Amino acid sequence: MPHILILEDEPSIAESLVFVLQAEGFNTHWETLASKALAHLSEQPVDLVIMDVGLPDMTGFEACKQLRKFSEVPVMFLTARGDELDRVVGLEIGADDYVVKPFSPREVAARVKAILKRTRQVQTPAVVDSTITSDRAEFAIDHDRKTITYQQQLLQLTRYEYCLLATLLAQPGRVFSREQLLTAAGVTVDAGYDRSIDSHIKTLRAKLRQINPAAEPIKTQRGFGYCYQPESH
């Protein structure tokens, strides 16, 4: 039975979410402070976190940043902020969905189900050979450990970055749209946040440049998306 942690300081909202989620068959744990929620998450893994942005001890954005240091658990933000920039920031720091108040608790429950379904279905694309080489780039994918090495150096990747890079490496030369990459990473496609992929690609490129500043294996196809392009001999 999936376990959901609710981080919300407004009792009326939290209680309605607890009621609906438990009616849908989920186990729930409710915290009002981010510090206590983070302590709980460090000791007791959960399947998904529903997190308010406006919290008494720190913002939800800061709590999510701290959470991402030790966990890739799916996160859904709840907030009264409807500004597009806030939504994009939330997704860029590692959220999976963003719901603006006021909202229907049953809609939140439906979104929780959708996120859990996507994250469980996300699988590394099949590749014939786990090692992809070229004259200037070499990647090795360990599907069991969900790790990727670049020129024999282990990349420190988030879950999103791993899924994105593994998807690109699986089919060299193929251009993937932002929507396709969002799907590969298990992020909501219909939320209109396809530009958050740009931020993840930027971070990926920065990590690759730390190993080889001269190479650029991830190419941008303007108006279409991104692809992995091995260097020609």
UniProtKB/TrEMBL annotation:
> Gene3D superfamilies this protein is in?
3.40.50.2300, 6.10.250.690, Winged helix-like DNA-binding domain superfamily/Winged helix DNA-binding domain
Query: Entry's SMART domains?
Result: REC, Trans_reg_C
**What GO terms are given for molecular function?**
cis-regulatory region sequence-specific DNA binding; identical protein binding; phosphorelay response regulator activity
Q: Does the keyword Phosphoprotein apply?
A: yes
Report whether Transcription shows up as a keyword of the record: yes
Sorted keywords for this record are: Cytoplasm, DNA-binding, Phosphoprotein, Transcription, Transcription regulation, Two-component regulatory system
What Pfam families does this protein map onto? Response_reg, Trans_reg_C
Indicate the segments forming the Response regulatory domain, all copies: 3-116
List the subcellular locations.
Cytoplasm
Q: Which PROSITE patterns match?
A: OMPR_PHOB, RESPONSE_REGULATORY
Question: Got a GO cellular component term for this one?
Answer: protein-DNA complex
Instruction: Give the modified residues of type 4-aspartylphosphate.
Output: D52
Which GO biological process annotations does it have?
Answer: positive regulation of DNA-templated transcription
DNA-binding region range list: 129-230
- OmpR/PhoB-type domain location is 129-230
Q: Which InterPro entries match?
A: CheY-like_superfamily, OmpR/PhoB-type_DNA-bd, Sig_transdc_resp-reg_C-effctor, Sig_transdc_resp-reg_receiver, WalR-like, WH-like_DNA-bd_sf
Record NCBIfam families: PRK11083.1
Protein name stated in the entry: Two-component system response regulator CreB
What is the originating organism of this protein?
Answer: Cellvibrio mixtus
